[in-house]
Design goal:
By secondary structure, the protein is mainly beta. It contains 4 helices and 14 strands. It has helices spanning 11-17, 80-87, 167-173, 180-185; strands spanning 3-7, 21-22, 29-32, 37-42, 48-54, 70-72, 91-96, 98-105, 108-116, 122-132, 139-149, 160-162, 164-165, 195-199. Strands 3-1-8-9-14 form a 5-stranded antiparallel sheet, with no helix packed on it. A 5-stranded mixed β-barrel has the order 4-5-11-10-7.
Length: 224
């Protein structure tokens, strides 16, 4: 699943929803893709907004290479790696104000942006891991986003969508007292009537670009 996202809202608005200390300076980013830094809140430090790299490098990997951007909800407890991260509370909120999915039409692919009607800033359910460089001993923290089958708005574009948490399920996702099975039961498709979808420029594929033109709607009819 090709999933990228953004976090561009002003810091006061972000901290209105997530009133926590920042570990590092905040930079609005219009398209956060593989290996780029994203803002997360972890179960281990629930009152701190941290920066971690998108695309999880598991702690036991020999090299800092991974394309593990997402993991299916159904794999969390069936795969040993993800089960261990869940049991050891390596869960996080991935902060965003929108996300992107691509759809193929004929020989071309087009990006679509999804946002929420009821919240300008929200979180997606994630899990994370810390990798230690065997030579430099540098600590590299990274995360991936949990996905579930897409709702009616998503399904015309992609089979899957990120797990979007509500303010209530955010607290549960970071809890260290709720059983893993019960936490996964909270991972549901977000109501499509509370979301918006529109096509955006293909320039979001260029990671060197970072400006508001990337999130402007494009009036280009495509039969979804």
């Amino acid at each position: 699943m090709s999933l990228s996202f953004s976090l561009t809202e002003a810091l006061p608005l972000i901290q209105q929803n997530y009133p926590y200390e920042l570990e590092a300076a905040y930079t609005p980013t219009y398209n956060i893709g593989i290996y780029m830094p994203g803002m997360v809140v972890t179960a281990d430090e629930p009152h701190l907004i941290k920066k971690m790299h998108y695309s999880m490098v598991p702690f036991f990997f020999k090299e800092r290479k991974s394309i593990m951007c997402t993991v299916r909800h159904s794999q969390i407890l069936s795969k040993q790696l993800f089960r261990k991260l869940m049991v050891t509370h390596k869960r996080c909120l991935v902060l965003a104000d929108g996300f992107y999915l691509w759809k193929r039409f004929g020989a071309d692919k087009y990006p679509f942006r999804f946002t929420l009607k009821d919240r300008k800033v929200f979180s997606m359910a994630g899990i994370w891991s810390a990798w230690i460089d065997p030579i430099t001993k540098e600590r590299y923290e990274s995360f991936c986003i949990i996905t579930i089958p897409g709702n009616e708005l998503i399904s015309g574009i992609s089979k899957s969508m990120p797990v979007i948490l509500t303010p209530e399920t955010e607290k549960a996702w970071l809890s260290k007292t709720i059983e893993e099975e019960k936490l996964l039961a909270l991972c549901m498709s977000y109501p499509p009537e509370l979301m918006t979808r529109f096509q955006v420029t293909k320039d979001i594929a260029d990671r060197s670009l970072n400006d508001s033109s990337l999130i402007k709607p494009i009036n280009n009819y495509l039969p979804i």
